[in-house]
Design a protein that fits this description.
There is one protein chain. The chain is α+β, with helices and mostly antiparallel strands. It has helices at about 5-20, 35-45, 50-55, 60-65, 75-85, 95-100, 110-120, 125-135, 245-250, 270-280, 325-330, and strands spanning about 150-155, 165-170, 180-185, 190-205, 220-230, 240-245, 255, 265-270, 300, 305-310, 315-320, 320. A hairpin with a 7-residue loop joins strand 3 and strand 4. The longest helix is centred in the N-terminal third of the chain and has 16 residues, at about 5-20. The protein is globular.
Amino acid sequence: MPRTLVWRKCFIRLGNRLASLFKKGPLKYFPFDSLPNELRLHCFSFLTLEALIASKAVCAEWRILVPLTDMYPPRRHLYNLYSMVIDNPKPDREAQLYYGRWFEPSFNREEYINSLLKQHHAIPEEFRIWVLEWPARLIVNNIWPGLTLKHCLLDGPSTGGSSRKCGVNWLSLKPPQLCALLANDGVSCDPKYAPSLLVWRMRWVWLNSFRPPHELREEEFFEFDCDTWLVFDEESKYFGKVLECPNLYSADVGKIPREFQYRAKEEFPDWIQYLEQRWHGIAPCGRQTSGNIIPRFTFNRDIRKIKFEVGSIHQDCIPAEPWTKNQLEIT
């Protein structure tokens, strides 16, 4: 049955059930439509994102009413992201085949969030709502925790839309693992660790010559690297922000200079705005590219062993210590 009819049929069955209790026979009209618009909008405000999406497709009148609903602000932001994605389709057939193969139907959203809460008591609300309510099959640029952990190799560094992304989707590590990034102001002797979630790690290198690396000219060598972090430190003004920085920032013994307060080449106010930029194919770390191009060559590699190596620039390694281990050492 098409999803567009699910909510209407549910309300009709409920109405028929109530009518049978009062012996008035089956209803010929949808009782919800007879309510004032204020009450209908109030009812819509309690729905999840997926329910709002389905309700919008029920009929022309609901299509007008749903966007007028007084939604929970993070859910409104997420709803606007969904509308933008639908209005600006960027299909990639090969990526859809990949998602169909490595999509994990058994992925438990609540368990994923609870695992993060066991490590840290505060989760950015936009990220939490996205994990719990975003349509699982509408994957933005290979970023979704319900995929299998893979190392993706492409023939280009910058993609967008539904295309896959070069690097490792560390968001799909299950159970998820918060990392401890050390903020050092160069004065205080007491270290401060910031709980952060590693979202993505990539390093793409292009050579236009077979000469040794130290003999290469600038136009013969191109390196595109980026670490993406979501900050969970609620004591910082950067709580909930997404930071993209070159690998060398994380490779500096995991230290983030205090004077830059999580210094990065690129910064996004929240998780949903980061996904919006990824859909448009904006290059990470402020890099300039030739545009968002659908990759012609893709290769997948399994990550069989999870390694935490502080200062590592390898994509298969997490360049910081686990947050829970760091907390044990502090206490």
